């Protein structure tokens, strides 16, 4: 009897983290999320088969795939990230930090899409829950995003927003933002887990039923993740992250999830007072303009997705006035820079133990790819020697703890990009397949260790560990 009673006792589980409890609670005891604890366990299914089917299943060969053909938005960089444009019926979630330019970009996309190619105008509905209609109109006038078929409504009620969709029948819907809409049929405040789940499900159902492309703006938490339940990212078709520093005009758009295209493309935008513009050739934006060569600087090529970008690393060394030298970085991982300092000290004989080290990138770009290791190391060595590197030179390669320089992907693509920009020399890691085709007049030097790079770029700078071993063996 007790076994049967215990088996029939319902259990409850959090849909976010999986925490289980014997009784229902409003707040998860593990992740502290509200409204995510639901009943689970053994129960009989209550849904039965439908007696009539509105649209029967068809053989996949008879399905018309032209309905899901991408439609260009008029913004080349956004089309690059999405894989050609907006797919009818797709739901795109765009997230980013406050003030990064999400609303400005989507308002510009809405106006361009409404104008259409030639005289083919299309109805677009822009639902704003964060600003009034007059505030959005002021921004539209400032950036030139006014179109006759672009409809604007300031609404926070989901039912009213769905009624606007029924009345207008737009081909593109923009919701700014999904956390501001709320349904009266569901408990909780706007932005809560339950409300966000209901709003997203309703908008996705409307988009699929009407074959209407939907762009959703999503808030982010203080750690950079998208606010709301994780289910939100699973339900939508495309998830994009809009990134950029507040003190820089450059913005980068990345596709984290994309059911209709690649996820390794990056779009580059320039945010100004008059709007946001696509930057189709961003190489050179993250390079300083100096007439004379300066010690402590080195150029590198990083791959953002499949796009090579030229960037500059700057290093400054100064004698420390404290017992613990200062280590400061900007645009680079501090742990990676600390590792390179140790490799230079131990494997290349560069004395940095008693010096304050400041390493930064130019233009606010953040470099996380390991291929920038060699450029950071050469910038530090140049600052330690107070000798500038040769002009028109780039360095890239991953540096290991043993001092070896490891190959990186896309060596040929990086060389082609810097050759197009007018550079003439490159120091690259040695690869079994070689650097690939080299443009005419371009010099490529392969290195296997960081000591080889030091001997090549700073001849006569002093004996490193490799030279010391060779001298000891000769004696």
Automatic annotation (TrEMBL):
Lineage of producing organism: Bacteria, Bacillati, Actinomycetota, Actinomycetes, Micrococcales
Positions bound to ATP: 96-103
Residue intervals of the RecA family profile domain: 67-220
Family under the similarity heading: Belongs to the RecA family. RadA subfamily.
Pfam families (alphabetical): AAA_25, ChlI, Zn_ribbon_LapB
Official protein name in the record: DNA repair protein RadA
Lon-protease-like, as annotated region: 356-475
Motif (RadA KNRFG motif): 257-261
Gene Ontology CC terms: cytosol
Organism: Kocuria flava
Domain of life, source organism: Bacteria
PANTHER family: DNA REPAIR PROTEIN RADA, DNA REPAIR PROTEIN RADA-LIKE PROTEIN
One of the protein's GO biological processes: recombinational repair
Recorded domain comment: The middle region has homology to RecA with ATPase motifs including the RadA KNRFG motif, while the C-terminus is homologous to Lon protease.
């Amino acid at each position: 009897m007790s076994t049967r009673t215990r088996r029939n006792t319902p259990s409850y589980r959090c849909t976010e983290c999986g925490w289980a409890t014997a009784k229902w609670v409003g707040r998860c005891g593990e992740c502290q999320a509200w409204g995510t604890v639901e009943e689970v366990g053994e129960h009989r299914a209550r849904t039965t088969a439908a007696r009539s089917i509105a649209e029967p299943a068809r053989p996949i060969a008879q399905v018309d795939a032209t309905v899901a053909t991408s439609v260009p938005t008029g913004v080349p960089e956004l089309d690059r990230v999405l894989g050609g444009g907006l797919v009818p019926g797709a739901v795109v979630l765009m997230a980013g930090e406050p003030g990064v330019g999400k609303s400005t970009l989507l308002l510009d996309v809405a106006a361009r899409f409404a104008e259409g190619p030639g005289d083919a105008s299309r109805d677009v509905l822009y639902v704003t829950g964060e600003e009034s209609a007059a505030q959005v109109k002021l921004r539209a006038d400032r950036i030139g995003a006014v179109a006759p078929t672009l409809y604007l409504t300031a609404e926070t009620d989901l039912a009213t927003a769905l009624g606007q969709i029924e009345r207008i029948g737009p081909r593109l819907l923009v919701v700014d933002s999904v956390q501001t809409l709320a349904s009266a049929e569901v408990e909780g405040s706007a932005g809560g887990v339950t409300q966000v789940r209901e709003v997203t499900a309703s908008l996705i159902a409307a988009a699929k039923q009407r074959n209407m492309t939907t762009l959703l703006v999503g808030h982010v938490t203080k750690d950079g993740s998208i606010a709301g339940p994780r289910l939100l990212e699973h339900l939508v078709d495309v998830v994009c992250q809009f990134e950029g520093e507040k003190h820089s005009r450059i913005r980068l758009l990345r596709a984290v999830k994309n059911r209709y295209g690649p996820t390794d493309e990056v779009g580059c935008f320039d945010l100004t007072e008059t709007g946001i513009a696509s930057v189709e050739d961003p190489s050179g934006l993250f390079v300083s303009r100096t007439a004379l060569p300066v010690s402590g600087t080195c150029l590198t090529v990083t791959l953002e997705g499949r796009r090579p970008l030229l960037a500059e690393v700057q290093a400054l060394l100064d004698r420390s006035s404290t017992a613990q030298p200062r280590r400061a970085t900007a645009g680079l991982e501090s742990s990676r820079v600390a590792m390179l300092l140790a490799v230079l000290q131990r494997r290349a004989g560069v004395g940095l133990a008693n010096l304050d080290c400041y390493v930064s990138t130019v233009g606010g770009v953040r470099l996380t790819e390991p291929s920038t290791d060699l450029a950071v190391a050469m910038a530090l060595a140049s600052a330690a020697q107070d000798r500038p590197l040769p002009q028109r030179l780039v360095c890239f390669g991953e540096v290991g703890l043993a001092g070896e320089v490891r190959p990186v992907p896309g060596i040929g693509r990086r060389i082609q990009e810097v050759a197009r920009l007018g550079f003439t020399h490159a120091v690259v890691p040695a690869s079994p397949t070689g650097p690939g085709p080299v443009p005419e007049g371009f010099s490529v030097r392969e290195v296997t260790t960081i000591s080889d790079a030091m001997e090549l770029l700073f001849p006569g700078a002093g004996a490193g560990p490799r030279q010391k071993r060779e001298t000891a063996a000769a004696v």
